[in-house]
Amino acid sequence: MHYQPDELFTSTAPYYAKYRAGYPPELFTHLTDRLGLDGTQNALDLGTGTGAIAIPLAEHVRQVMAVDPDSGMLDEGRKLAVERGITNIDWRLGDSQHLDELHLGQLHLVTFGQAFHWTERDVLLSALDKLVTPDGAVVVLGGPAPGAIEPPAWLEVVAQVRTRYLGPERRAGSGTYTHPKESHQDVLARSPFSHIEVVHWDRTITRDLDSVVGLQFSYSYSSTAQLGDKKDAFEDDLRCALTEFSPQGIFDEFVRTEAIIATRPQ
What are the Methyltransferase domain coordinates in residue numbering (predicted)? Predict the structure, then answer.
């Protein structure tokens, strides 16, 4: 698996900041209690995007180093942090392949949102073993395994329109994406962080038409950069198809957020 980190989310940053749902507050309360976060720890959020983890985590630690290969994402994250009065996030341009260049120091917590699958996971976890304190943790956030939850019917409407414009293969920068064969838990189980706990939170997210359309432009595989000069036609067709599906313009989605908390065996 070889991707150019800085090209995966080209053009997505403003849509990402506005339309991604973020994580439930209960998740950060749980991490604080489970990991004993008391405002004295340093944390690293790799593939931070616009700070969906870094910003709510910041109030629980001394400092968050929020790292992303896309400068546009970091710019959006900085704006959101300023709006919330958060000053203890260090926004850094970089990626998981060049951690040594970031001079990170000792870390109590390393987090990943929708980013761990983009990395060379075994290599990265070995590198993190040298950075994470003995009582520290690696936390991977995401959704459940495919098929665990029935997707909403409107997602198939979106998929049909996207396939007409971009083809059946999932795009990733200038190439295509292949999902890792091994689960995150299997990879973590053979790493130095092999003690694994899994916790989840369920919620229903309700979106309007504009939010569903904008959300598509936040994804690496249906970004405005991927669509190019087909963007306007794609948006028009998607709006028509979704309006036919739901004339009321209401789109519900049952979402499960899963946290894999990986620590060293005691």
Answer: 44-136
